[in-house]
User: Fold this.
Amino acid sequence: MFRASNNRSCCKRQYLACCLLLALLLLLISGTAEAYDPAGYEIYSVADYTPPTVTRDRTVLKPSPRNAINSDGMGGFFVGNTADLFDPEQLILSSRYKYHQLTSSRGMGLHSSEEGSVSTFESSLTWVGKWAEWAVTVPLHDWDLSAPRTFGGYADSNTGIGNMRLGWKATYLPDKSYYRFAYGAVMGITTGNPARMLPAGSKNSDELKLFGCVTTSETDRATANLELGTVIDSESDDDRFIYRLGMSYEATEHVSLIGEVAGDVLGGDDKDTMDLVMGIRVQPTTTWTLEFVYYKNLRTYRDYGWDEQLQAGYTLRW
Assistant:
């Protein structure tokens, strides 16, 4: 009897607990229904959704008029290679005209009665892939030299093709916080009659240039670049270390000012060359870039040296 009474009391308590729980749930549901205001919500259809487009990452080095082709046929300043990115899957044509007067030989000035000059027109064709750049550069030289005392009866002139250059630069390395790295190689191949183009700077031997560069974003308008590398001569007569230090400043949306220090170090005993390079790049449209450059020689150990050089060129993308 006592056990049956306890069972009935337990069932009654469970029933009351269930009723209270059900009442609480109904209260919560009714409060939520009163707080719901359909006017406070806006429904978007699937047709309004625009999927994101995938573009090449440019979080650090933004495109600017400084982006053009250098003397190696690859993206860079006037002389040095940079880690700047071009849009992939495009072909770039560029040409440069250079002129200087011959004034020295291995650091020794020509005699007052001696003179010479060199004009060079070089064209580059560059293919920008998804992870690298490939380039071919062909120079055409026209030179004259009358220096019988310095060069032992050398008085001549000639026009012809110089040493062709094949370039490759890896551009797949990712952006860092404020800089990018790139590396590559340039092969100089003896083409035409190199012995007849020596006063224009051609070599009698092939050369392989290996380099690495880092480009940094200094401010919204200023960009710095450092290239270091080595040049290996096939005859081991002209092996050297190279450095290129440059800075660009975006003066306007269409104009970039660029300065570089370009040097080659052959060894001790002042066997090195250093040039100060200053110029401007103008980008009137998104596909055209024009450049005007002035070179000032600071130290020279060239076989056929010069004090100043002028350069004008263009880069055309399509």
